[in-house]
Every structure is written in structure tokens, then in C-alpha cells.
């Protein structure tokens, strides 16, 4: 499915036949072609109309597993990985971006929320048409980084929920929560590795060799984006530390629950120990005269109960329970 938006000065229009607009793009206009799950015919048409190199065409058709940057003089080919939230699990979706001075192409296989948000914001902007392709790409990459920040914020919220349940004593299955922490830690690691893998690409975008299609203004934007990339990487580190903190809270709560169980068992032992001692003494095989009287049985039982009650009272007085 292909969607094309033409930004012309202060106007934004969705066009059906984008191929007819390529040769009529003005100095204050830019065409954004967004392809979602394109078939072979659409990719072939794209390569022919934009005169793409064989390397770009092959990458669009087959894809690869890492961020990518290439300068083909008349256009740039960039691959970024945008985060996706699918049922509470964060996945990564590659987005292929082709950028010339007056047109931008994005190719993806699944819906990407940050692209949808960017489209809404760009459609409401009055000066998008005055941007050049690299500046448009910088805006798009800015929203991709924002998507990573949103993913880490969702992670923080999930960790806060686990911490709240632990502190309030609502953990029925600590092992389940522990597995959840392991899953969150793996998600953070996957997102962080994806972020770090973009460093080389962001660095390449700041180089002056791109002046054929870029300007000093776009170079400044990319330099600022590279700095923001490091801020987002730091957010990943903070989220990783938060997982460790949640693990400590979980372990502390589990230890507290164990201590409470041991306290109950210890108190039960202390309450029963004097009675067991008395019963053991009274059960010794000696001929004592008062064993002939049945009433003393109840006296001994009463004594055991009194000792247990006294022990319980002392425990409460000293706030052991």
C-alpha cells in the first residue's frame, strides 16, 4: 500500500499518482512516498521512477539485519529500526528511507506508530514544504528516537507496577514476577543494542561530504540528533538500572515474607516447647503417687496452657508479634 503526501509551501495534499508529480516539484515543495508492505511490482516501479541504484533496489527487495547508510550522490539510503509495542512486548521494525533534495521515500513491512504520528504532525505543519529532504529525514529520525523514549517510559511504568505490588504484599507468585523482570531486561537490552547500532549512521549524516543534497542547516540538525541519540542511550541505561532496583525490591519482599513465616513457626515452637518439656517429664517411667489420681491430668494440661499463654503475652509485650 502506497501513500504519497505533497508538501508545497504551506499546503499539504495527498496525491494518488505520485509518479506524475516527480518532474514538477518546485523549490518549496517536497514529496513523501510511504510504502507499507510493497509488492515486487511497486518496488520495481519505485526503482525505475527514482532511478535507484541496484544496491538500493536489492536492499529494498530483500532487506538486512542492521542499520545502513549509503550516499548515492543524488540521494541517500538510510535504514533505521523503529520500536513497536505489540501486546506489551517491544519489537523492532526496519524502515528503509530514500532521501533526495525534494523527495523522501519510506518503506516498511508493518505499521509503525511513530511514522503515523509524524505524518499527522507534518500534515498539520505550515512550513514542511520549505524543508529539504535531509531536514525532513532529520525530523523523521527525531520521531524515531522519541519512539524509543516512549518504549523506555512504558518499561518504567511496568516496573513501577511490579514495585507497587511487591511493596503492598500483592505478589502471589514471586517466580512469575521474576520471569517478567527477566523479559523486561531482555527487551531493554534489545532496544539498547538497536540504538547503539545507529551511532555510525548518525555520525555519517553529520559529515560535510553530503553537501551535494544537504545543507549546513541539515548538518546541524543531524549533529543535534546524534547528541540526542546519546541521551536516549542513557535512558536505556537508566531503565536497565531500574530493573535491578525492581529485582532488589522483589527479593527484599520475598525475604520479608520468608521472615514472617519463620517468625510464626518459631513462635509456635516456643509456645509448644514448655508443654512438650512438661509432658516429657510427666511421662517418665517412675512410680509417683499422684499418677494414681486422674484429676492431676487436667492440672498438667492447665499448666501447659498457662505457660503457653504467658509466653504469648510476653511476646506481645515485647512486640515480637
Write the layout of secondary structure elements.
Elements: E1 2-8, E2 11-15, E3 29-36, H1 40-50, H2 54-62, E4 68-71, E5 76-86, E6 89-99, E7 103-108, H3 113-123, H4 133-167, H5 174-197, H6 199-205, H7 216-282, H8 295-317
Parallel strand pairs: 3-7
Antiparallel strand pairs: 1-2, 1-3, 4-5, 5-6, 6-7
Helix pairs in contact: 1-2, 3-4, 4-5, 4-7, 5-7, 6-7, 7-8
Strand segment tally: 7
**Content-based structural category:** alpha+beta
Number of helices: 8
Strand order of the largest sheet: 2-1-3-7-6-5-4
Uncertain spans: none
| Global morphology | rod-shaped
Radius of gyration: 35 Å
Q: What is the ordering of alpha helices and beta strands?
A: EEEHHEEEEHHHHHH
Query: Share of helix among residues?
Result: 55-70%
Largest sheet: 7 strands, mixed
Approximately what portion of the residues adopt beta-strand conformation? 15-25%
Indicate the mean pLDDT. Answer: 82
Straight-line N-to-C gap: 68 Å
Characterization of this structure:
The chain has a 7-stranded mixed β-sheet with strand order 2-1-3-7-6-5-4. By secondary structure, the chain is an alpha+beta fold. The model has no long low-confidence stretch (mean pLDDT 82). It is 58% helix and 16% strand.
Amino acid at each position: 500500500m502506497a501513500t504519497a503526501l505533497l508538501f508545497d509551501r504551506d499546503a499539504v495534499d495527498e496525491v494518488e499518482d505520485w509518479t506524475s508529480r516527480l518532474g514538477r516539484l518546485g523549490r518549496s515543495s517536497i514529496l513523501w512516498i510511504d510504502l507499507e508492505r510493497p509488492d515486487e511490482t511497486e518496488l520495481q516501479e519505485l526503482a525505475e521512477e527514482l532511478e535507484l541504484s541496484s544496491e538500493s533496489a536489492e536492499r529494498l527487495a530483500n532487506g538486512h539485519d542492521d542499520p545502513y547508510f549509503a550516499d548515492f550522490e543524488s540521494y541517500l539510503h538510510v535504514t533505521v529500526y523503529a520500536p513497536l509495542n505489540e501486546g506489551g512486548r517491544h519489537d523492532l521494525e526496519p524502515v528503509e528511507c530514500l532521501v533526495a533534495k525534494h523527495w523522501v521515500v519510506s518503506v516498511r513491512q508493518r505499521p509503525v506508530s511513530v511514522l503515523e504520528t509524524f505524518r499527522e504532525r507534518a500534515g498539520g505543519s505550515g512550513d514542511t514544504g520549505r524543508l529539504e529532504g535531509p531536514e525532513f529525514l532529520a525530523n523523521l529520525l527525531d520521531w524515531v528516537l522519541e519512539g524509543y523514549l516512549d518504549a523506555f517510559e512504558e518499561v518504567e511504568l511496568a516496573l513501577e507496577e511490579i514495585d507497587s505490588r511487591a511493596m503492598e504484599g500483592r505478589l502471589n507468585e514471586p517466580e512469575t514476577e521474576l520471569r517478567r523482570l527477566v523479559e523486561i531486561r531482555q527487551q531493554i537490552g534489545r532496544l539498547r543494542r538497536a540504538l547503539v547500532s545507529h551511532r555510525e549512521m548518525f555520525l555519517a549524516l553529520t559529515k560535510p561530504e553530503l553537501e551535494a543534497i544537504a545543507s549546513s542547516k541539515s548538518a546541524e540538525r543531524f549533529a543535534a540528533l546524534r547528541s540526542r541519540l546519546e541521551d536516549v542511550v542513557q535512558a536505556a541505561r537508566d531503565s536497565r538500572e531500574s530493573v535491578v532496583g525492581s529485582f532488589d525490591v522483589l527479593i527484599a519482599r520475598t525475604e520479608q515474607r520468608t521472615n514472617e513465616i519463620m517468625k510464626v513457626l518459631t513462635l509456635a515452637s516456643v509456645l509448644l516447647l514448655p508443654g512438650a518439656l512438661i509432658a516429657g517429664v510427666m511421662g517418665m517411667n517412675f512410680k509417683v503417687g499422684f499418677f494414681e489420681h486422674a484429676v492431676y491430668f487436667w492440672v498438667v494440661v492447665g499448666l501447659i496452657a498457662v505457660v503457653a499463654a504467658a509466653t504469648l503475652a510476653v511476646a506481645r509485650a515485647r512486640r515480637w508479634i
